[in-house]
Amino acid sequence: MVGGGCYGTFYASQLATAKARGKTQYRTVVVVDRERDCRARRELGEAPDRTFVESDWAAFFDRFLSHSGDDQIVPSPHMPHLMFEWVLRRARARWPSRAVSVAPVRGDFPTPYDRPGSDQTRYVSFADWICPTHCIEPALCPAIGAPRTWEMGDAVRDLAERLRASGRPVCGPALFVCKHQVFGVGMFAADAVRAGDRLVEAAGASGAEAEVLVGTISSCHGALNLLRIADG
After folding, report:
1. What is the Cβ-side half-sphere exposure of residue 71, based on CA atoms within 13 angstroms?
2. Please, which residues bridge with residue 228 across strands?
3. For the segment 36-92, what is each residue's pLDDT rounded down to a tens digit?
4. Would you list the DSSP string of 83-95?
């Protein structure tokens, strides 16, 4: 679980309630926060199936994602694009003699919210309203009271196809899709992140210039980056 602040405390509490009611099973919830005395530790405390790790997120994921497993990652809605940052670090370590950079994600995108971040991340959303807190993105959108007719994954895959059709050497997309699992808690598989890393490795294997579209998304929202590998 990324962060032990207000969101991490809520998600860890919800998972504990779901488990107690027989709605889910898990081995251990690991809450990662840079502060030892984070809110989740103060309010929830340690438990046989809950532990806390005091660590910078980047350092933690460098360790955590280096081995395989069936773990799930519970992101905070406001975390930076940590999974892309991990894939980027891996690419730079893999090809120290090649330029590996972050390029702007170009192209039209069918969302009313579309903003660039200071780190070249493109933030997109199908919502032009304030979403309900802890929305699980059901088929019937609670904000507009009408069916949800969009899916972010489809829109990102369409973007990748258009970029390829324009002549760009774009691979992917590598998508880390956060889906609601139980009691308002969304998560994505750690193996999906490892698969994204393998996609980047395959894209750069020939030595030719390559670009990989990478996104952490839900059904409604997304953070997109383009990882560029110079020819080697």
Report:
1. 17
2. 101, 211
3. 999 999 999 999 999 999 999 999 999 999 988 899 999 998 888 999 999 999 999
4. HHHHHHHHHHHH-
Q: Which helix (H) or strand (E) holds 152?
A: helix 152-165
Global confidence as pTM: 0.94
15's CB contacts (< 8 A; 6+ apart) are 24, 26, 29, 182, 183, 185
Neighbouring residues of 49: CB distance < 8 A, sequence distance ≥ 6: 16, 19, 26, 27, 28, 29
Show the tokens assigned to 213: 């579209």
Beta carbons within 8 Å of 60's beta carbon, 6+ residues apart: 32, 53
8-state DSSP, 218: -
Element spanning 33, H or E: strand 29-33
What is the CB neighbour count within 10 angstroms for residue 216?
Answer: 27
